[in-house]
Amino acid sequence: MAKVFKKTSGNGGLTLYLGKRDYVDHVSAVDRVDGVVKVDTADFGDRKAFVQLACAFRYGSDDLDVMGLCFRKDIWFEQTQIYPENSKPQLSAMHETLLKKAGDNAYPFSFEIPTNLPCSVSLQPGPDDKGKACGVDFEVKTYLAKEKNNPDEKVEKKDTARLVIRKIQYAPSQVGAGPKADICKSFMMSDKPVHLEASMEKDLYFHGEAISIKLKISNESNKTVKKIKITVDQTTDIVLYSADKYTKTVLSQEFGETVEASGTLEKTLSITPLLTENKEKRGLALDGRLKDEDTNLASTTMLPQGVEKEVLGILVSYKIKIDLMVAGGGLLGGLTASDVTVELPLNLMHPKPEE
Q1: Contacts of residue 297, Cβ cutoff 8 Å, sequence gap at least 6
Q2: Strands, sheet with 5-8, edge to edge from the N-terminal-most edge strand
């Protein structure tokens, strides 16, 4: 194993060990979280050691927690007693490695992450925002307490060790056929329409990959297609107490292609939506990050069939909009200008890394 992640509590009594920080959601199942806690019982007194995995929605900075306002809403959590040991998980190769690393007085634990939990997503803070970003995160925490789950018992920070992990999805190995859309639009003062057909080669693209959009335009009207505008919109669906959906444009590009009256055009245009062009946009959904490492636009959320209604947290989707700017001729040209628009769904994800 290349790296072991560990965190020790302030009092030195608990050390949390994990073999990795990224856990892959394969849609049908999620990688199991296997870890180890090493204990030094000198200061335990009558307290026990517990470990928990929580998926939470964070919507404020930690600084504000001192006012008694909780800015973390637990979407799901599971906890288990680790000392005195009362149940032992089936040991995996990861456990064996971590137990060797931790040495004596180390106890293994495992958590299964349900498939209907969201992936790790953070919402991009504004330039002046301080503290941790809002979003969905997963955290493994070990702590000392007298009882397993007593809301009246205060757990001291020094008796806690925590590591943030990520639940991520990779693109499926099979890529499907690309989407296709067409429209036939008629105009005032023109007896024939403009026909637009747009298609993509495949149904999934990787972050940073150029997206080719094939256009077929047949302009049978007496108007002129002045230019083509392509936009990519990210829709973020925040499902907590109530559903809150908003859309932000992550790319808007104009192409100076003209199609005169009775003319045709077949052309493939290329676009690449990137986070680098959207650094100032507050609330844009990004893939969850660990500490300050670079991230990217959030990946499209892939859900098992039939669980859409059950998922809490943040769901992300994209669509591409193709607009033909059509202007009329003569004195009324500006007044009779109109758009011909089609939309295509877009899936943006990371390729699965080589094992």
Answers
A1: 207, 234, 250, 273, 274, 275, 278, 284, 285, 286, 287, 348
A2: 5-8, 14-18, 33-39, 106-111
pLDDT classification of 57: cutoffs 50, 70, 90: confident
pLDDT tops 90 at residue 117: no
Q: Residue 66: what are its φ and ψ, rounded to 5°?
A: -65, -20
End-to-end CA distance of the chain: 13
Block residue for tokens 């930690």? 62
For residue 22, pLDDT over 80 is answered with: yes
Distance CA 124, CA 250 (A): 13
pLDDT computed for residue 65 by the predictor: 46
Residue 6, CA distances (Å) to 110, 162, 163 in order: 16, 9, 8
Higher-pLDDT residue of 10, 27: 10
Q: Of 344, 317, 282, 311, which is closest to residue 25 (Cα–Cα)?
A: 311
For a pLDDT cut of 90, what percent of the chain falls above it?
A: 46
* Mean model confidence pLDDT for the chain: 85
Phi first, then psi, for residue 177 (nearest 5°) are -65, 150
Which amino acid appears at position 219 of this protein?
N
By three-state DSSP, how is residue 258 classified?
A: coil
Sheet holding 180-185, edge to edge: 180-185, 194-200, 211-219, 264-271
pLDDT: is 126 or 69 the higher one?
126
Whether the pLDDT of residue 241 is over 80: the answer is no
Residue in 220, 177, 219, 221 with CA at minimum distance from that of residue 199: 177
- Is residue 5 pLDDT above 70, yes or no? yes
Quick one: tokens of 110? 């495992």
Can you tell me the distance from the alpha carbon of 259 to that of 92, in angstroms, rounded to the nearest whole number? Answer: 64
How much of the chain is in helix, strand and coil states, percent to nearest 5? Answer: 5, 50, 45
DSSP letter for each residue of 98-117: HHHHH-SSEEEEEEPPPTTS
User: How far, in Å, are 99, 174, 216, 245, 256 from residue 262 at the CA level?
Assistant: 75, 41, 14, 41, 18
Greater pLDDT, 87 or 189: 87
- Give CA–CA dist 343/186, Å, rounded: 18
